[in-house]
Amino acid sequence: MLLYLRLLKESLAFALNALRNNKLRTLLSLLGVTVGIFSIIAVLAAVDSMDKKIKEDLSDMDLNTIYLIRFSFGPSDVPRWKREQFPDVTYEEYEYLRRSVNGIDKISFNLFTRNENIKYEDKTVNSIRIKPSTDEFIDIEPIKVEQGRFFNESESNSGVPVIVIGSEVASGLFGDTDPLGKKIRLYGQKFTVIGVLKKEGQGMFGDSNDIAVFFPVNFLRRMYGDNSDMLTPAIIMKPVKGIDIDEFKAMVTQKLRTFRGLRPDEMNNFFLNILSGFTDFIDSIVGQLNFVGWIISLFSLLVGGFGIANIMFVSVKERTNLIGIQKALGAKRRFILFQFLFEAIILSIIGGIVGMLLVWLCAVILSSVLDFEFVLSTQNILLGTGLAGLIGLVSGILPAISASKLDPVEAIRTGM
C-alpha cells in the first residue's frame, strides 16, 4: 500500500513538473479534456437546473389537476388539421361539469388571452399577463395573496370589475403606496384593486404571477362574448384526493361527449391534459437534452483523450533513460506502468477540474444576472471527476504499457 502511495506521489510530481516545464504543450493537450468536461457538465447542470425549477414551480400544485381544452399539452396522435377544427370549451360546459361530475374538488373556468398594458393615473406598466378566471382558481393554482383578498363567488358570477394584481404590477403602479381600493384602468375600464399577490420570482416558462393580474372571467365574457379569436377558454379541474384518476378522466370524457352529442364512432374533440402527464413529457425532454449533450460532448472528450495520449507518449520518450535506470535497479513492469498511468489520470483530472471550475463560474455569473438559479450538483461534480479520470485511464494505458515493456539496456542506451 505504501508503495502505491509513494507511486501516486511521484506521479503527481511528474505531472506537475510536466505542467511547469512544458506549459504550452500541456495546456493544449489538456484543453480537449477541459472543453469536453465543461460541455458535458454545463449541459447536465443546465438541464438539471431547468428540471429542478419546473418541479419547484409545480410542487404546490396537485399533479392530478386536469386542463380541459381543445389543445394538447404534449404530442398527440390526432392530426394537426383535425385538432384545429376542435371547438373551444364553453362556460355552459363548465357549469354542466360542475353540477354533474362526482369527484371534483375544485373547478375553474379560465380564459387565456394576450398581454395588455395597465394604468394608474400617469403611470403605466406594459405587457401584463391577463388571467381572467372564476373564483375557485385560487384553490387550484398556488396563488398566495399578501394584501387584501381574492374575488369571491358572487363577484365572479356577476363579473364585477375587481382585480388582484401581482407584486411587480403593484410596485410599478403604486410604489410604496397602499394599492388596495385604488382604481386602475384596463381595457378602457376602471377596476378596483382588492388584493396584491406575494412575490414569487420568475417562473420556468416566464409565467410569473408577479407580472399578472386576476379578475372575474365573466367581466371579459360580457365584454367580448364567447367567440372572440383573442380568447382561448379552458376548464381546470382538481379531483378530490385519493380518487382513481383514470376513472375520473373517463367520467369527465363521457359527460362531455354526451353534452356535445358525439356519436360512439366519433373521436373526442377535446383534450384532457393532466399535469402528471405534462411532467412525464418534461422528463422525456430532459432525457433527450441530456442524450444530445452527451453525444456532442463526447467528441470533445475524444479530442481530449488524444491530447492526453500524445503528451504521455512524449513523456515516455523524454524519460526513456530514467525508465531504463529504474528497471536496471529492479523496478518491476507494473511499477513503471502504474507510474505513467497515474500521471495520465492526474493530468486528465486537472483538466476536468478546470472544466468544472469554468462551469461553476458560469453558473454563478448567470444566476446573478438572470432570475434563475443554475445549480452545479455534487452528483455532477463527481461525474465530471470520474469522467476525467476515465479519460486519463483510457488515454494513458497504451503509453504506460509501452513504457513498462522497454528493455532496460536499450532504454539506457537510447537515452544517452
From TrEMBL:
Protein's UniProt keywords contain Cell membrane: yes
Location(s), subcellular = Cell membrane
Q: Name one Pfam family in it.
A: FtsX
First-listed, main subcellular location of the protein, grouped into a coarse class? membrane
How does the UniProt record describe the way this protein sits in the membrane? Multi-pass membrane protein
One annotated GO molecular function is: transmembrane transporter activity
What positions does the domain MacB-like periplasmic core occupy?
Answer: 26-254
Q: Where are the transmembrane segments?
A: 27-47, 292-314, 335-361, 381-403
Q: Which residues form the ABC3 transporter permease C-terminal domain?
A: 294-408
Q: Which GO terms describe its cellular component?
A: plasma membrane
Write out the entry's keywords from A to Z: Cell membrane, Membrane, Transmembrane, Transmembrane helix
Which PANTHER family has this protein been placed in?
A: ABC TRANSPORTER PERMEASE YTRF, MEMBRANE COMPONENT OF TRANSPORTER-RELATED
Annotated family: Belongs to the ABC-4 integral membrane protein family.
Q: What is this protein called?
A: ABC transporter permease
Q: Which organism is it from?
A: Flavobacterium sediminis
Lineage of source species: Bacteria, Pseudomonadati, Bacteroidota, Flavobacteriia, Flavobacteriales
